[in-house]
Fold:
Amino acid sequence: MSNNPVILNVLRFLLLVLAQVLVFNRLNFFGSVNPMVYILFLYWYPIKENRNLFIALGFLLGFVIDLFSDTMALHAAATVTIAYLRPAIMRFVFGVNYEFQSFKLSNSTRIQQFTFLALLVLTHHAIFYSLEIFSFSNLLLILKKIVFTGIGTIILCTLFISLFGVNRE
Structure:
């Protein structure tokens, strides 16, 4: 396969959507945990690309997942939000280092990569489940879903990153 980043991102987009729709939407660990591994697209997307395009791709990703999941734009709202917040999350995790041209996610420490992934996942799940349940009287249910689904998603995403991520040279 060539090293063309456009082809790589299109392939990642399609494979993560297919994996989410065909496999992970059907999984139901412990009765209520459905991992959302498609978030990896937002994790792997190149840092210095056009931000408007990234937010539009985040919307498209969430919208396609919503079409197959019948979730009435909950995924789209959550993915657009974390696509918008990604620079702030990166600044929090990596400091000002990520703003330099030579910064690559694969060159950062494993702790930073894990923290970045965990913040993306937990922010996504907080938005998703807050909109899904939409009641502060069920705050404990929202927190339970965020924590348990977040843990399942982080574990599976970490496995995907270790299997399919870019290796250090």
